[in-house]
Amino acid sequence: MSADWILSNVSVLAPGDREKHLLKDISLRINSGQIILLLGHNGAGKSTLLETLAGLREPESGSIRLGEEHLWTGKGKKRLNGTVLKRIGIALQQSESQWFASTVREELAFSLRPYQVEGEEAESRMQAAMMSVGLDHAELARDPWTLSGGQQRRLAIACLLACEPDWLLLDEPTAGLDTEGIQRLTGMLSACRASGRGAIVATHDLEALLPLADGLIIVRDGLAFEEAPAEAVHALGSASPQALLAEKLLIGKGMLDAAETACAAEAAGLWQPPEELAKRLAAGLLGNERIAAPKLPIAAAIEEVEQEPQEPLESLYRLDADGSCQASGTVMASDSKKPEDKFDPRALIAAYLILSAGLLSLNSMPKLAIGALIAGACAMPFRRFLIPLLPIIRAFFYFSLVFILIGAVSLQPLELQWSKSEPLAIRMIQLGLIMVIGMPLLALMSPIRLQRGLEQTLGWLTRLKVPIHSLSLLVMLIFRFIPLLMREWGRFAQIVKARGKSTARGNAIPLRLLPYLFIPYIRAILRMAESMADALEARGFGQPAERTTQGFKLIFAPADGWLLLAAIAACAIMLTARMWL
Ligand SMILES: Nc1ncnc2c1ncn2[C@@H]1O[C@H](COP(=O)(O)OP(=O)(O)OP(=O)(O)O)[C@@H](O)[C@H]1O
Asked: Which residues form the ABC transporter domain (predicted)?
């Protein structure tokens, strides 16, 4: 029999951004043996909540208990509790890309390993799990990568079921499943509940899962909004699928503007609750008074979610005459308040070069002190981008210190002569300061804007046969791929840790699990490179006769002028210090 989840004031911060809350002060009790749906807009925090329950994200504050057991234990609650981990099984979105073994059987055996289940017991669990998800016994010998997408999703769930956890944590489990697969899934969830186990399921598929649910948790902007009573859920469940079907039917007949509904909502990631559709039906918009929205406690909750002010669609999307949705590139490129859109990359690079030249001109410790003050003042407004890079800065500091100390060693007699290593110390401090002021650039320039900046500035060189498009593309890809590779590593690390029931913190991976991470990781990177190559080809790269398409044009704004003036003033101060000190 599974135990209740008890969450008290749980908050989770974005990795590397301590000002961004992914979950805020969540207090919940989720009773054992229930099927609970997590609902909410795209980006609301459903996956984050599931990952936090699975110990894949460390809460900044608050406590998470499964019955009497704390998920995080030890001094300062910094160590994961392996006993709790073994009582839960999580399937992340796209966790079917996790395969490393050459057969389905080995994959299942890997999932069972932390439970030390082997031999006949393991075999019977594997077969039962395969049967529950509708995979044939013969598939055990197949290479998991040769299964279809839907079959791989079923296998991901079978890997969880074989471990017989008290709680299943499922993220979008119906995605990619056919009708039979969904029926299997709902049957499996009902069977879990009947055996006293529970499930928490993040989903947008209300039609399939709402009729099963014992309760709902609405997540909005990282807040768990409401736990709905089971009666409300079932009453709502009887109304919503019809409303959805009615809407689809009317869109098909051209009686409802698809651009206003599905296209816009899907494109902007807005979730349209069935309640909204039911209200429109009730208002006569769809002409079917059979489906009227019942006024339920949960309806009020969903309504409140919907009343959250949304960014107007037209600021993000342009609806063309043919009803198709287009991302509004110019709006996103110039008017957005995202950090990487604030400055023109050309201004940022020019300011960086000017400041670096100033720092390199300082040739003594007192002058460098002035340079350090100026570099600190420049970096201060962007300190939140520097926090995640502190380990690199610290490593550089220790590395420099060791070199400076070695440089200062005199052997006859054995002593430290500071004067010997002063030039090296000055050089290392200059490099350190240049590195620190350069670090925020990674966050202030998106790769695509950097590419456009290079193309707009150096585009004239193409007449001299200089391959500027290719060079700027290369720079863009380097900028784009480094964070992407790190993110993918984090994603696969999470999956492998969840399967291996690792108690390691953060993205740290125990050595024993590394081989299981490398294969799917490398495969994912290769696939990503292949998709990118296809996309580039579609844009015209690699076909010299074709003109490549360009999404937007950078425009030098007053803020860029001020940035350059500030950099010139700072450089002037450093040059003056060099001459007069
Ligand atoms: N590593 C991260 N760094 C910064 N922000 C993050 C990180 N991971 C998630 N987020 C942000 O946290 C928010 C919640 O994401 P989450 O994946 O939990 O949403 P969701 O409700 O599951 O969405 P969906 O329905 O699209 O799956 C999003 O705004 C996302 O951009």
From this structure: 7-246
Contact 498, 507 (CB under 8 A): no
Q: What is the predicted pLDDT for the residue at 64?
A: 94
For the Cβ of 273 lying below 6 angstroms from any atom of ligand 1, the answer is: no
What pLDDT is recorded for position 167? 94
20 vs 135, residue with greater confidence: 135
The finding on whether 22 has its CB within 6 A of some atom of ligand 1 is yes
pLDDT of residue 574: 93
Out of 196-200, 278-282, 512-516, 537-541, give the one with best mean pLDDT.
196-200
How confident is the model at residue 545, as a pLDDT?
Answer: 52
Q: What tokens does 323 get?
A: 């009803």
Q: Give CA 550 to chain center in angstroms.
A: 27
Q: Does the beta carbon of 48 sit less than 6 angstroms from any atom of ligand 1? A: yes
Beta strands in 325-371 (DSSP E): 325-327
Determine the Cα–Cα distance for residues 243 and 233; give it in Å rounded to an integer: 15
pLDDT tier for residue 578 given thresholds of 50, 70 and 90: confident
Torsion angle of the four alpha carbons 521, 526, 530, 536, in this order, in degrees rounded to the nearest 10: 80
Q: How far is the CA of 21 from the centre of ligand 1 (A)?
A: 10
Closest ligand 1 atom, residue 490 Cα = 1
Pick the CATH number of 5-228 from 3.50.50.60, 3.40.50.300, 3.90.550.10, 1.10.10.10: 3.40.50.300
Atom of ligand 1 nearest to the CA of 271: 25
Q: Average pLDDT over the chain, rounded to whole?
A: 77
Rounded to the nearest 5 percent, the helix, strand and coil shares of the chain are: 60, 15, 25
- Domain segments of the chain as ranges: 5-228, 240-327, 339-447+563-580, 467-550
Q: What percent of the chain lies above the pLDDT cut of 70? A: 76
Pairwise CA distance, residues 168 & 147, whole Å = 23
Query: How far, in Å, from the CA of 244 to the mean position of ligand 1?
Result: 26
Number of residues that this document lists for the chain: 581
β-bridge partners, 70: 65
Gap from CA of 525 to ligand 1 centroid (Å): 21
Query: Does the model's pTM come out above 0.90?
Result: no
| Residue 176 CB–ligand 1 contact under 6 Å | no
- Tell whether ligand 1 has an atom less than 6 A from the beta carbon of residue 506: no
Taking the CA of residue 487 as reference, the ligand 1 atom at the shortest distance is 1
Ligand 1 in reach of 43 Cβ (< 6 A)? yes
3-state class (DSSP) for residue 84 = helix
